[in-house]
Design a protein that fits this description.
The chain is mainly alpha-helical. It has eight helices and four strands.
Length: about 190
C-alpha cells in the first residue's frame, strides 16, 4: 500500500472523518442506493479508473447518475438523454460523490486534495501539472471551494492544487472542509468533475 508516503496525521484524520461520515450518512447512502437502483438500475455505483497518488490508477466510486438507455442499434444514447432528474439532483448536490468515502478508507483518496481527473490527461500534463499527484486526490479541494468547476482550465485548477500541496496542514484541510459544508448548505456546489 502506498500510504506510507502520506503524512500519518493526514491519514489518521482522513480515516476518522471517513468512518464518522459513513456512520452518520449511512441512512442517506442507503436511501440514495435504493433510489439509484429504482431509477437507474443496477449496479448502483459508477466506477471509473482515475490517476491517484504518484499517478497510480485506482477505481473511483460514485452513485450512478445515468441510465443505460440505448437506441435501436444497441448503442448508448448521448449522456444528455441518459441523465435523469435524480442524476441531475445527485450531481448538483454532490451526493453522487458520497461513495468516495470508501476510496478514503481504502487509502486511495483523501477527504481533501486535488480532484482526480481522467486518465487520458496524464500524458498531457506539464511537469508542474503532474505535481498534483504528489498527494492523494481528494473528495473536495482548494480549487473546488474557490469556485473552480470542471469547465475551467487545467492551468487554473493547477494553480490552486499546487497552492494546496505547498501549504498543506491539518488546519488548512479543516478550513477547506468547513467551506465545503457551507457551500453545500448554501447551495453553492463547486464540484463538477
Amino acid at each position: 500500500m502506498f500510504i506510507r508516503s502520506i503524512p500519518l496525521a493526514k491519514r489518521m484524520f482522513d480515516l476518522l472523518l471517513a468512518v464518522l461520515g459513513l456512520l452518520i450518512l449511512s441512512p442517506v447512502l442507503l436511501l440514495m442506493a435504493v433510489l439509484v437502483g429504482i431509477y437507474h438500475g443496477s449496479p448502483v455505483l459508477f466506477t471509473q479508473t482515475r490517476p491517484g497518488f504518484k499517478g497510480k490508477p485506482f477505481c473511483i466510486y460514485k452513485f450512478r447518475t445515468m441510465t443505460d438507455a440505448r437506441d435501436e442499434q444497441g448503442n448508448l444514447l448521448p449522456d444528455s438523454q441518459r441523465l435523469t432528474p435524480l442524476g441531475r439532483f445527485l450531481r448538483a448536490s454532490s451526493l453522487d460523490e458520497l461513495p468516495e468515502l470508501f476510496n478514503v478508507l481504502r487509502g486511495e483518496m483523501s477527504i481533501v486534495g486535488p480532484r482526480p481527473l481522467l486518465m487520458q490527461y496524464l500524458e498531457r500534463y506539464t511537469a508542474e501539472q503532474a505535481r498534483r499527484h504528489e498527494v492523494l486526490p481528494g473528495i473536495t479541494g482548494w480549487a473546488q471551494v474557490n469556485g473552480l468547476r470542471g469547465d475551467t482550465s487545467i492551468e487554473e485548477r493547477t494553480r490552486y492544487d499546487l497552492y494546496y500541496i505547498e501549504n498543506w496542514s491539518l488546519l488548512f484541510d479543516i478550513k477547506i472542509i468547513l467551506r465545503t459544508i457551507v457551500n453545500f448548505i448554501t447551495g453553492r456546489q463547486e464540484n463538477a468533475y
